[in-house]
Amino acid sequence: MPKLTSEVSKAVDSLVRGKLVAFPTETVYGLGGDATNEEAVKRIYKVKGRPTDRPLILHVPDLATVKKVVLNWASSESKLASRFWPGPLTLVLKNGGLIAESASAGYETIAVRIPSHPFALSMLESFSKIGSGIVAAPSANRFSFVSTTNAEDVEMSLQNHLDKADMIVSSNSQDECKFGLESTIVDCSNDSPTILRVGVIKKSEIESCLGIQVRISQVEGRRQNSPGSSLIHYSPRTAFRVITNNEIEKNLLDLCEEGKTFLWCFEKPAHTHKNLIAEIAPSCPRKYGRQLYSKLNSLDREQFTMILFEEPPKNEDWNAICDRLEKAKNRFCTKKF
Ligand code: AMP
Ligand code: MG
């Protein structure tokens, strides 16, 4: 695959030179920089507009590198790693002190994962041969706005903040973010593993792997447990609401009076309105998750007065999606930023 090879070497070259690379993973696009290079890491925060007290997830190619960046490696993390890596699981562990201080925002813990995406893995493997092999990468979008799952959305979000020497890896089917939602984060830094962020891997899968019940931490506002969790996140700039099927029945026409309205719903609404564009959303959570951010990003560019998403079913398969929608709607206001 010549294209893959040449883009990988270009990306590695940028990382070695302390530049930033927006690269695809199986979850979302990451904005990566060498995690051992303080200047590179500082630029990640700057380009994203992310507060510097919100530490970054480290991406590494293999278990040997994980063991270099953490202080200890015990049975829970070992079980989770063998079952879910490479893949969409992030583990929080004690910081071994190898990375730039700003990557962990000075915390005594770090968050780390081995991604499964062929481009990401290949880039990390090559980078470990000529550099640190440790890439700090939050999602490749401006802080608190919608995550990105393709090169065009990264460009729209970050082009005014990146330098010429930085790189956005192009999208093709090989580079698809196949899950489209962020990793599940499990805190294994103390005796009772806790889920800090719901994600692609379900709570029941974590529990069956560990053979114990795990808690989902009420992370919001509890900075000591999950630095970086915030109430407003994943949010479009356009006014955005999640509405129930019942509300669609009762209030849709009134809402449409306010201006051009988009509705993503699971079945065709009973009413039509001159201001309304309604589309049927995937009923399969995997498909819905894969489309969610690209849908929000493209809708956000279309000058709607309001974006409405029908509330998805409330069961474990939809948990990560409901979490993202819940946070995305918290910015709800008509102001354009
Ligand atoms: P993201 O916003 O996708 O970049 O993910 C950041 C999340 O990773 C945070 O909300 C934390 O839950 C977790 N995280 C990252 N770095 C650390 C760290 N050093 N210690 C604990 N959790 C971390
Ligand atoms: Mg993010």
SSE topology:
Blueprint: H1 2-16, E1 21-23, E2 30-34, H2 38-48, E3 57-59, H3 63-69, H4 75-84, E4 89-94, E5 109-113, H5 118-130, E6 135-136, H6 151-158, E7 167-168, E8 184-187, E9 194-197, H7 203-210, E10 215-216, E11 239-243, H8 245-256, E12 261-265, E13 276-280, H9 285-300, E14 306-310, H10 319-328
Parallel strand pairs: 1-7, 3-5, 4-8, 9-10, 11-14, 12-13, 12-14
Antiparallel strand pairs: 1-2, 2-6, 3-6, 4-5, 8-9
Bound molecules: adenosine monophosphate and magnesium ion.
Describe the 3D structure.
- The protein is α/β, with parallel strands linked by helices.
- It folds into two domains: 2-216, Alpha-Beta Complex (DHBP synthase), CATH 3.90.870; 239-328, Rossmann fold, CATH 3.40.50.
- 33% of the residues lie in helices and 17% in strands.
- It is built from ten helices and 14 strands.
- The chain has helices at 2-16, 38-48, 63-69, 75-84, 118-130, 151-158, 203-210, 245-256, 285-300, 319-328; strands spanning 21-23, 30-34, 57-59, 89-94, 109-113, 135-136, 167-168, 184-187, 194-197, 215-216, 239-243, 261-265, 276-280, 306-310.
- The strands form two sheets. Strands 7-1-2-6-3-5-4-8-9-10 form a ten-stranded mixed beta sheet, sandwiched between helices. The protein has a four-stranded parallel beta sheet with strand order 11-14-12-13, sandwiched between helices.
- Strand 8 (184-187) and strand 9 (194-197) form a beta hairpin.
- Helix 1 (2-16) packs across helix 5.
- The longest helix has 16 residues, at 285-300.
- It starts with a helix and ends in a 9-residue tail after the last helix.
- The relative contact order is 0.15.
- It binds adenosine monophosphate and magnesium ion (MG).
- Residues 55-57, 92, 104, 107, 109-111, 138-139, 182, 185, 196-197, 226-229 line the site of adenosine monophosphate.
- Adenosine monophosphate (AMP) binds next to strand 5 and strand 9.
